[in-house]
Automatic annotation (TrEMBL):
GO MF term list: biotin--[biotin carboxyl-carrier protein] ligase activity
Matching InterPro entries: aa-tRNA-synth_II/BPL/LPL, Bifunct_BirA, Biotin_CoA_COase_ligase, BPL_C, BPL_LPL_catalytic, HTH_11, Transcriptional_repressor_C, WH-like_DNA-bd_sf
Annotated PROSITE patterns: BPL_LPL_CATALYTIC (PS51733)
Stated name of the protein: Bifunctional ligase/repressor BirA
Database matches in CDD domains: BPL
Keyword Ligase: yes
Gene symbol of the encoding locus: birA
Top EC category: ligase
């Protein structure tokens, strides 16, 4: 985990507006010695940060490496609580598994777990999620909302809106949401969301939201079986993107939507979700554990349940399914 001094140091640089900061000034602001400041700056240099150190002027960060370390994410992060505690790993089996452990260790709300690579990433229904090194965002967020368990699916939908808004801001692409948890670009999957709940009978104890975003993969990076159905932001916008910057935007978007949700309820977020949904008004097939249902997607309920009208005019509520869109 990132040290408190390192977080304070990066917060100071985030607010410095690219000015030089003297070692003594930094030491006074973060409450340590000038020697400690120098050691932290050397650690940042080893991580790949490019630094300028000018006599009588001080330090300035001129470039950050293309990693998603705690330091990179913290430098420039504008949130109040999301991402203020970061657990970073080079390679993991699954960020969700680490999040589960941290939940029991009382990690605070807004803690994120992020890795450069997942060896056993997974999506809904335990499907494998392809998570190659240094290409995507493989992230889990810990939330502790004071809500009853039936409200948990709403947070998946809110996360989907935050992801879409972050991608829009970063790339000018226009993603669409496929209920309940996929983000598509040109009909291909670019993001998946997995929500796991720990709850008592009447109260949510914690929610872990896993997000996998394909950022800088190229077509040849995907196994052949995934090439027709998966894409990345880089493929769609024809440029390499800074993953840490996208994480910062995503955390800020999510924090604002989550705060609005806790204050105003789901309705304003429901309208936002429906504005991005690819399936609303279209004929779809919903494949559930009990069979398939064909009909027109009418929208979602206030609880995030999908509404499908069949050929006889009957409206069905679908709580969990795989959705196929009709061409």
């Amino acid at each position: 985990m990132q040290s408190e001094l390192r977080k304070k140091l990066l917060d100071v640089f985030s607010n410095s507006q690219d000015e030089y900061l003297s070692g003594q000034h930094l030491a006074d602001l973060i409450g340590c010695s000038r020697t400690a400041v120098w050691k932290h700056m050397e650690e940042l240099r080893k991580e790949g940060f490019e630094l300028e150190a000018v006599r009588r002027k001080g330090y300035r960060i001129t470039r950050t490496p293309e990693r998603v370390t705690a330091d990179e994410i913290s430098l420039g992060l504008m949130t109040e609580f999301m991402g203020r505690h970061i657990h970073y790993e080079e390679s993991v089996e699954s960020t969700q598994k680490i999040a589960q452990r941290l939940v029991y260790e009382e990690a605070p709300e807004g803690t994120i777990i992020i890795a450069e690579e997942q060896l056993s990433g997974r999506g809904r229904m335990d499907r494998k999620w392809y998570s190659p090194k240094y290409t995507g965002i493989w992230l889990s967020m810990i939330l502790r909302p004071n809500l009853p368990p039936p409200k948990a699916p709403q947070l998946t939908l809110i996360t989907a809106v935050a992801v879409v808004q972050a991608i829009e801001e970063m790339t000018n692409l226009t993603p669409q949401i496929k209920w309940p948890n996929d983000i598509l670009l040109n009909g291909k999957k670019v993001t998946g969301i997995l929500t796991e709940l720990q709850a008592d009978a009447d109260r949510i104890k914690s929610i872990i939201i896993g997000i996998g975003i394909n950022v800088n993969q190229q077509v040849e990076d995907y196994p052949e079986e995934l090439q027709p159905i998966a894409t990345s932001l880089s493929i769609e916008c024809n440029q390499q993107l800074k993953r840490a910057e996208l994480v910062q935007i995503l955390l800020l978007k999510f924090e604002k939507l989550y705060t609005l949700y806790l204050e105003k309820g789901f309705y304003p977020l429901k309208l936002l979700w429906e504005s991005y949904a690819i399936s609303i008004g279209r004929n779809i097939t919903a494949r559930t554990v009990t069979g398939s249902l064909y009909g027109k997607a009418m929208g979602i309920t206030d609880d995030g349940v999908l509404l499908i009208e069949d050929s006889a005019g009957k409206v069905h509520q679908v709580y969990s399914a795989d959705i196929e869109l009709e061409n």
